[in-house]
Amino acid sequence: MRARQSMTFPAFQRAALRALAALTMLLATSVRSNFVYDDDPFQPVTQDETVAVGGVVTLTCSVKENDNSSLQWSNTAQQTLYFGEKRALRDNRIQLVKSTGTELIITISDVQLSDDGEYTCSIFTMPVRTARATVTVLGVPGKPVITGFEDAVQEGGKVTLTCTSSGSKPPAKLHWYRDQEEIQGRPDVVESNPDEPTYTVTSELTLTVTRNDNNALIACAVDHPSIANGDKRTEQPLSVLFSPSVLIHPESDLPREGEKFFLQCVGNGNPEPTAFVWRRKDGELPPLAKVDGAFLRFESLNKSDNGVYECQADNGIGMGDVTHTLLVQEAGVKSADPTAMTTSPGVDHAVIGGVVAVIVFIMLCLLIVLGRYLIRHKGTYLTHEAKGSDDAPDADTAIINAEGGHSGVDDKKEYFI
Hints:
Layout: H1 2-6, H2 11-39, E1 49-52, E2 57-62, E3 71-74, E4 80-83, E5 86-87, E6 94-99, E7 103-108, E8 117-123, E9 129-138, E10 145-147, E11 153-154, E12 158-168, E13 173-178, E14 181-183, E15 189-192, E16 199-208, E17 217-223, E18 232-237, E19 240-250, E20 261-270, E21 275-280, E22 289-292, E23 295-298, E24 307-314, E25 319-326, H3 345-386, H4 395-406
């Protein structure tokens, strides 16, 4: 009795053993099924597809062999789309591309988010064999919208910009740019859209602005796999208010006595300055100097106009000022600019003297060469002339001999008339 009891398992242990056996058989069946799937020539083969909303997706189902059974495509709701060559669902977006005994290809155009899901290809053999293809439909994000540019911001202040893009699936990513340089904003905030499987993405950017940021282009760009060519972006210029920086432009760098003349005050600010004040550092403005807005005009310059003049420009945000020293030249002086291109008499004399010396040297060389040439030929003539006159008994004979010797060996060829 004890031995029999020792061989008897409690009820819960028997249940566990049966479950283990069932799991073992299931695993064996699964392995055998995979083995058949890999080697089964009638098993349909499909592939997953990804398409953006509004695009076209192609579904292909194929088998290695066929026993005259038909291939069939079904949608996510298990509605038959095509059974071989026969259309089963009246949807003009779905078209047949190819139907043979071993292949069935269809297309779905103008894809919508509702087309997302698993599609089934079946072949009605014994048993029926199936394969699934997952169609992932991408929601295309809308063009980003930037807010926060409504009011200009003063130099040194902070501005917070918000970029929003809606309709993406999966959620898009947002990037900020200043001109062409990427800058970091806060992490994206993703929210699900009601009544549709898409998302709205928001990002914020906070900047402390300077006058160099005025008119800088701030861009928000959307990055998403549904956007084939680059990204979608929106650009907005920053408007920064700042006090003016001021320069004075004289009409001429060499003002002369008796001439008309003006100084122009140029202010660079946002907004542009509209109020200008002219002062003279060492006293009152000259009687003939008139203030004309940004211009200080002189009707007739005089030495007494010399001095330091100051212009102050105001644009409502702040003021800027600058000074300019006016030096009036005498009427008879052509150039008082030390950097002007001038030619002094000393330089002229030195150049002329050098040229004359070169010419004299060349002439001396020519005279020496010519003199040597003449002397050489003169000696030859005298030598020939004296030849034969030394041995003559009298003067007449010497002259005759000299004339004969001058002709040399060719005296027989000379004729005199």
